[in-house]
């Protein structure tokens, strides 16, 4: 007997990034992770930057930025700043970008904050990529 599915939608400023029916998903919230399956109680979640996983026959990984998720009626609707399929991430490219950022010397607090945010985002993408690679090993 197959598992019951939930409707799953990610919307970014560019439009619908992912539309699917899934067995379950794991969302990166600001204070950890939430797993959502069929018949989950209604909830609104504040998403943090990190790895979003969806499962059908196999796991699929995405890196998302902050957003919100609405769960209810066996649907998960996510609105976030960006959603990147982890298969599109390149460890070499991310490492290169990280190296370039770490060589910078910010002149003031605003530039330092912007640099920190960029470094954190790249490290988060690298972690998403690492999780995907470990799961497929």
Task: List descriptors.
globular, ATP Synthase, domain 1, 10 strands, single chain, five-stranded mixed beta sheet, alpha+beta, five-stranded antiparallel beta sheet, 2 domains, 137 residues
What does this structure look like?
The chain has 137 residues and is an alpha+beta fold. Helices cover 29% and strands 43% of the residues. The protein is built from 2 helices and 10 strands. Helix 1 runs antiparallel to helix 2. It is globular and about 55 Å long.
Task: Summarize it.
The protein has helices spanning 91-102, 109-136; strands at 6-12, 15-22, 24-29, 32-37, 43-47, 50-55, 59-64, 67-72, 75-80, 83-85. It is α+β, with helices and mostly antiparallel strands. The chain folds into two domains: 6-86, Sandwich (ATP Synthase, domain 1); 89-136.
């Amino acid at each position: 007997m197959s598992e019951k599915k939930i409707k799953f939608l990610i919307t970014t400023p560019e439009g619908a990034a992912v539309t699917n029916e899934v067995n379950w998903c794991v969302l990166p919230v600001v204070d950890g992770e939430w797993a959502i399956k069929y018949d989950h109680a209604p909830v609104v979640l504040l998403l943090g930057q990190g790895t979003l996983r969806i499962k059908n026959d196999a796991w699929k990984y995405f890196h998302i930025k902050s957003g919100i998720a609405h769960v209810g009626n066996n649907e998960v609707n996510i609105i976030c700043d960006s959603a990147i399929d982890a298969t599109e991430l390149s460890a070499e490219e991310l490492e290169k970008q990280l190296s370039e950022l770490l060589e910078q010397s910010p002149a003031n607090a605003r530039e330092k904050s912007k640099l920190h945010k960029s470094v954190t985002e790249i490290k988060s993408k690298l972690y998403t990529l690492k999780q995907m690679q470990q799961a497929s090993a």
